[in-house]
Automatic annotation (TrEMBL):
Entry's transmembrane regions: 55-76
Compositional bias (Basic and acidic residues): 1-13
Keyword annotations from UniProtKB, A to Z: Membrane, Transmembrane, Transmembrane helix
Region annotated Disordered, chain positions: 1-51
Domain of life: Bacteria
KW Transmembrane helix (keyword) present: yes
Protein name: Uncharacterized protein
């Protein structure tokens, strides 16, 4: 049984069955100068530390959700 992705041997002379080699295929979309500049240069001073939102915002959000649930239970017993 033939592999399902092989070309039918009866169609080998068909000009539509001409495919590029792997090297030609992968070379076709590469830039002329494939070396890119470094996006994170080494050395230098480290940047400022990232500041995250305070815990008060998280506490307020959790308290608001709990309050909403309690009000919902109180209004619709």
């Amino acid at each position: 049984m033939a592999i399902p992705h092989e070309i039918d041997p009866r169609a080998t002379g068909d000009p539509r069955n001409v495919y590029t080699s792997d090297e030609q295929f992968y070379r076709s979309d590469r830039p002329a100068m494939p070396v890119l500049p470094e996006d994170r240069p080494r050395g230098g001073r480290p940047g400022a530390p990232v500041r995250h939102r305070g815990t008060w915002a998280t506490v307020a959000m959790v308290a608001g959700i709990i309050l909403l649930i309690l009000v919902g239970i109180a209004l619709f017993p």
